[in-house]
Design goal:
Number of helices: 17
Distance between the termini: 55 Å
Number of strands: 13
Strand content: 5-15%
Strand order of the largest sheet: 3-2-1-4-7-6-8
Oligomer: single chain
């Protein structure tokens, strides 16, 4: 490949622009130099990628912008403050917004929209506003609009599929053809299901990584939950306490209580501060050479050993919440088997009043098992699902019963249920 003088000038200008824009946390410039320098060969890959997305018009105004700055503007209405103390901002970070703002992100499609509605009910119950829904099909956002859930200006829904495919082609093209999850099979259509170990599941599970990267690159903190999470309290008070206690920490995770990933970090419930450290970890989580299409595996790999030392500048940059503060599906399934119900009331644990902030119904094989567990332990909050002309109706009262210390401290079964 030969680079002309004019292309070299454009490339240098591009690198200068990237350095300025990256300082503002608005965009990641990976591949931009190559795209400019090899413009004659690539015939403007960015333009070609955009043209490939153009035929997808069914989602209309909900299509996530391919341009990074436009994307940052689109998600801004979902941003809220209070996730962290302002003084904890990295001194090298020039935030897009001051005080720092965070965005609650959930990835969904129509197959899991009922779980999404339950998550929204739990947010309403604890008085937490703001939600960014990353939709993987062109039906979810219109459905949320028809049922009135997008009437709240702080609830934003974006059809994320083609923005993610664009990033896959630029950052991780081997995902398209990987033998275990041939995502090329999805490029001609719109994914709807998410059976475990299927290409659709690979796409959905990795969407969380790309959504995380996009949000932190736009200058926001990210509070990401799976749709099978139920908030029992506003988590921001807990997050602020953690950040005040641990001055080097920038990431908070749910404890997965497993040994199959090195740090036992669950990526279905976490908060990351805005800043360069989060951007480095987000980028590495996508580009890490090891492949298994669970985002949890990738994040645990990059936050372990020598990679963590490099990305976190030799600091302990993350903590896990205590198990009883954010119980996972192993606990919930065990409770359901014993006929127990969960409570959002403070519980006496080891001489302290512990307030569980969330429950996560993972470790279930399918959506029906999740729904069954949630109903049995009393955290199914949907009284009637949203439909055109009939808004979502949620239970807002107290959760039905208290947990004893023995219940909270009892160990759940080790097997997957």
């Amino acid at each position: 490949m030969q680079i002309t003088a004019s292309q070299l000038v454009v490339g240098v200008a591009c690198l200068f622009t990237c350095s300025v824009v990256l300082a503002l946390g608005m965009v990641d410039c990976d591949g931009l130099w190559l795209l400019q320098a090899d413009k004659g060969v690539n015939v403007s890959m960015a333009r070609r990628l955009k043209s490939e997305a153009d035929p997808i018009t069914a989602a209309g105004p909900y299509v996530a912008p391919l341009d990074d700055e436009a994307f940052a503007k689109a998600i801004y209405p979902a941003a809220i403050g209070g996730f962290q103390p302002s003084q904890r901002i990295d001194p090298d970070f020039l935030p897009s917004h001051n005080p720092p703002l965070g965005i609650h992100v959930a990835v969904s499609n129509m197959a899991s929209v009922h779980l999404l509605e339950n998550l929204i009910c739990s947010k309403r119950r604890v008085g937490l506003s703001g939600l960014l829904v990353m939709a993987l099909d062109n039906s979810t956002c219109p459905h949320l609009n028809r049922t009135g859930l997008l009437d709240d200006p702080k609830v934003v829904c974006l059809f994320f599929f083609h923005r993610m495919v664009q990033q896959i082609r630029l950052m991780k093209p081997e995902m398209i053809e990987h033998k275990d999850a041939p995502l090329r099979d999805l490029l001609g259509g719109i994914p709807t299901g998410a059976k475990f170990n299927s290409p659709n599941h690979a796409l959905m599970i990795n969407t969380k990584l790309f959504a995380m990267r996009d949000v932190v690159n736009a200058g926001f903190g990210i509070f990401l939950t799976d749709v099978d999470v139920v908030l029992l309290a506003d988590p921001r008070l807990t997050f602020r306490k953690v950040f005040n206690k641990h001055k080097q920490v920038t990431m908070i995770f749910q404890d997965d209580t497993t040994h199959w990933v090195p740090q036992s970090l669950n990526t279905g419930f976490y908060y990351w501060m805005p800043g360069p450290q989060s951007r480095r970890v987000a980028h590495a989580s996508i580009t890490v050479p090891e492949w298994w299409h669970l985002d949890q595996t990738k994040v645990n790999i990059v936050l372990n050993g020598t990679l963590r030392a490099e990305l976190c500048k030799n600091t302990r940059c993350f903590v896990k919440l205590p198990e009883w503060e954010c119980p996972n599906g192993r606990w919930l399934n065990s409770m359901a088997q014993r006929g127990e119900k969960i409570s959002s009331d403070p519980q006496p644990i080891r001489g302290k009043k512990i307030h569980p902030i969330a429950a996560h119904a993972n470790y279930n094989d399918n959506i029906q098992q999740k729904l069954q567990t949630m109903r049995k332990i009393g955290i199914w909050l949907v009284e009637s699902h949203g439909a055109p002309g009939h808004p979502l109706k949620c239970y807002r009262g107290k959760l039905p019963s208290r947990l004893t210390p023995a219940q909270l401290l009892s160990k759940p079964p080790n097997k997957k249920m």
